[in-house]
Specification:
Helix content is about 30%, strand content about 25%. It is of the alpha/beta class. The strands form three sheets. Strands 3, 5, 6, 9, 10, 17 and 18 form a seven-stranded mixed sheet that branches. A six-stranded parallel sheet has the order 13-12-11-14-15-16, with helices on both faces. It has a five-stranded mixed barrel with strand order 1-2-7-8-4. The longest helix is centred in the middle third of the chain and has 13 residues.
Amino acid sequence: MRSRSAVLRAAPVAKPYADTRPLSIEEIEVEDPGPGEVLVRIAAAGVCHSDLSVINGDRTRPLPVALGHEASGVVAGLGAGVDDLAVGDHVVMSFLPVCGVCGPCAEGRGALCEPGHAANGRGTLLSGARRFRCEGVPLNHHSGVSAFSEHTVVSRRSVVKIDRDVPLVEAALFGCAVMTGVGAVVNTCGVRLGESVAVVGLGGVGLSSVLGAVACGANPIVAIDLSQAKLDAAREIGATATFLASDPHVVEAVRELTGGGVQYAIEMAGSAQAFDLALQVTRRGGTTATAGLANPAHRFQIPPVALVGEERVVKGCYMGSCVPSRDIPRYVALWRQGRLPVTKLMSSQGRLDDINAAFDRLDRGEVIRHLIVM
C-alpha cells in the first residue's frame, strides 16, 4: 500500500526548519507485515526531542529514515503468527521493541533489550526487515515505529493493546512522554511517599515526571526550567515549588527549601549543564537520574571523592526503565483514576504537512507536546 510519510534524508539541518524543511512529506510504499509484525494506521504522533535530536545531529541514525516514535493507532493488518491482536484493536507504540527473551528482558529490564537496541541502531524492525520503500529504495525505520506516517509496519513487540474507550490522541503520549517520565520516578528512582523530588527540564517527559511524583505522593516536588510558562504548567499539575534555571542562586534556593537538597533529582533537558544542576540540588546520599539525551560528545564531571564521601548515586534512565506491556496499562489505569491528567501536557495539534514548523516551536521551547493528528 502507499502512505504519506515524513522522511529525513540528511542531518544535521540548519534552522529555522520551516524554511529548510528537513522533513519532506513523501508518498512511500508500505509492504505487508511479515511474520510477527503488525500494520498500523497511525492516529496521532507526538513531536518529541528524541526526533529533534536526529534532525539537529545530536543522535546519529541511518538515513534516509521515516521519523517519529511516540504514537497511537489502530491495527490494520496482521502478519503470520500474530494471534493475540485483531484488526481494529487500538494500540500504543513502544519506541523500543522488547524481545522478551534476551538477558535484560529475562531480568525484567525490557528497556535494555539487546536485540531491540540493535534493531533500532540499524534502522530496521526487530526481525531485521525494512518494510518501507520510496521509488523502490529502502527507507530506514525510526525506533521501530516511524510514527510520522499515515500507516506503518512494526514488530508485535513494539505495540501494547489498549481499551478502545481511551482517546487515541491522548493515548499517543503514553508511548514516550508518560512511559519515560513517570517510569523515571516509579521505576528508575523508586520514589516513595513523602520523599523529595526535583525535575530539571519541563518538556513533555519532564512534566510527566512531575505527574509521576505527584501520583507517588512525593513532597516537596521542585520543578526547574528556563521557561516561566513551563514552570507555571508544573505548578498547575502539582509541583510545590518552581525555580528558573537561569537564576544564579537556584542551587542555594533549592538546598535551603529542602534542607540540603532533594533525595531524587531527575534531569530531562538533555544537556550536560542541566545534569550538573540536577547533581548540585541532590542531597548527600541522594540519587541523580537522567533520561535526557544530550549530544554524545558532551561530558559531565563528578569528583570521585564526592561520589564516595557523600555516597551519591548516579543513574541512567532509558524508556523509564519500563517493560511496556506491564507499565503502559498501569499508567492508563492511573489516568482513568484521574491521577495522571496527561491532557494537560498537550499544547497543540496539527497536520503532517506542518511538521517542520512544529519542530521549530519545539526547538524554541514554545510547546510541551504538539501532536500530529492523522
